[in-house]
Design brief:
Strand content: 5-15%
Helix content: 40-55%
Strand order of the largest sheet: 1-3-2
Radius of gyration: 13 Å
Structural class: alpha+beta
Order of helices and strands: HEHHHEE
Largest sheet: 3 strands, mixed
Oligomer: single chain
Number of helices: 4
């Protein structure tokens, strides 16, 4: 199952995404949360903390500026640019996914 939460700024997308992700993970689902927002704060809402959220945001900025190489596949995205959040949620802060593998996103 793939879910996307969209809406205008300030409408509660990040909070809704965090609640959905943690609830589904607590119910035994494998959950990967992707923060694609221009102001990525999903890590804070998921409970990974300020420092880890900032680390993930910095990695995304390094990618955008060409200082870091893109990951060649989904597993590498999660391994290199992901973080474990509470309740078994895996979080990654991304700006785009080039050449997604079948079934990805």
């Amino acid at each position: 199952m793939k879910l996307a939460v969209t809406g205008k700024g300030g409408s509660g997308k990040t909070t809704t995404s965090a609640v959905l992700a943690r609830t589904l993970a607590r119910r035994g689902h494998d959950v990967v949360a992707l923060d694609c927002d221009s102001n990525p704060n999903l890590g804070i809402s998921l409970g990974v903390g300020d420092d880890e959220t900032e680390r993930l945001v910095s990695m995304r900025q390094a990618l955008d500026e060409g200082e870091e190489e893109h990951a060649p596949g989904w597993d590498q995205v999660l391994q290199r640019f992901g973080s474990d959040a509470p309740d078994g949620v895996r979080l990654a802060v991304v700006s785009r996914i080039d050449n997604p593998e079948p079934g990805c996103l």
